[in-house]
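Data availability (excerpt). The following record was deposited with the supplementary files.
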Amino acid sequence: MENKDTQVEGEGTMANKATIVVHSGDMDKLYSALIIANGALAMGMEVSLYFTFWGLQRLRRGALEKGPLSKMNMLGLGKWMVKRKMKKVGVVSLERLMQDFKELGGKVLACDMTMEIMGIKKEDLRDDLISEYCAVGTYVNEAKESTITLFI
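Predicted structure:
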């Protein structure tokens, strides 16, 4: 697939790139971020996921699948029903989506300010997933170069 750059008025070229802020740690929102990100990678785009606040919590060891459902969680019953339906229709796990994302060349950025605020240490997080520990300036530079930016 050809990678075409687009011209932005008053600037240089803009890369065929997507940057997604993963602010929520809710299961369904994490699914949305990873499905969109993997779709963009499959279409030849570069993709960066910037994990911050509750989204960053999902990068803790053993926590990727732990997030609640954003609506109608019903003490976990709603999440159980949604996961059951997803399995029935063949939706893969968050773990698999994240592995696919990394294998397709996606970048996972972990917000180091959030780590300080929430008392998260590097050893608490999955270093097999994280491409870079960084500050908001890295996100802004990624977003500046992107044709698509999302906040999930």
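Summary of structural features: DSSP finds six helices and seven strands in the chain.
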